[in-house]
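Re-run with default settings, no changes from the original entry. Doing this only to confirm the output is reproducible before filing.
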Amino acid sequence: MINQMDKKKILYFCIIFLLFFHLVPAVQSPEDSQGGEEKKKSSFFKNLFEDEWQILTSPFRIKGKSLLTWGSAALITAVLIHNDEEMYRGAKNYQEKNEWVSDLSPKLRPLGNGTINLGVAGCFYICGVIFKDKKARKTAELSLMSLVHAGVVVQLLKHLTGRKRPEAAPVGEDHWEGPAGFFKRYKDHRDMYYDAFPSGHTITAWSIATVIAKMYNKSVVVPALCYSLATMAGLSNVTEDKHWFSDVFAGAALGYAIGNFVVKTRWRNISILPFAQHGKVGLSLNYSFN
């Protein structure tokens, strides 16, 4: 008999195989001249590794506006870390007084699950194939890229910081083990105890939400829905005792940055529109990065 965990692993493998098998040739296909146009690149994997290198080395190239943005994010994270224990207790007190939080929280947290988000990417690809929608297929590809990047970044930071989760004993007390937590998590067979910072579910939810929101940004509803669901998925990690507020904020900031980077780097939007002005007619070419 195949247990529930095995079924999830099989589903996880099938989704990855489907996306990787079909997306590689999709990148090499001719560009569509109507609506959206993809940047020409030789290989999906080549793009993936190039972008991963850019992401991992980006801290050494921060300057100007980016320095101000990430400096502000770091300051907010530091303030949250300082107040995490108090904020966590406040959130738990509110949860105890409001049963709807406990009822809704476990239903929202899976929105940051990697397998579910791979499934979302797979749905975009399948719909793109069925309806011959190149933008949907590209959304699937960029979503997959963002999920891979998010996974690498979050695991690197988790192993470097070694922060205990709120549920780890003593419950509700914040402890940082640093890189030493890398060995403790495997030695003590408590691999989930030393990987709080940043939140993996949050960075996953925000990375794919940003890709979808940026790809379909002409609609107000799509970005609003994507970011709302990602936010609720992130906050549910606190009420489910998996993460501190600073873990969630850092995960959201990193997830947004990764998704935004992938879309800006691998997708451009071109539109050709007719115009008539002062007795003249012609075509206007509009080009913009999402």
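Residues 67-288 form a domain with the Vanadium-containing Chloroperoxidase; domain 1 fold (CATH 1.20.144). DSSP finds ten helices and three strands in the chain.
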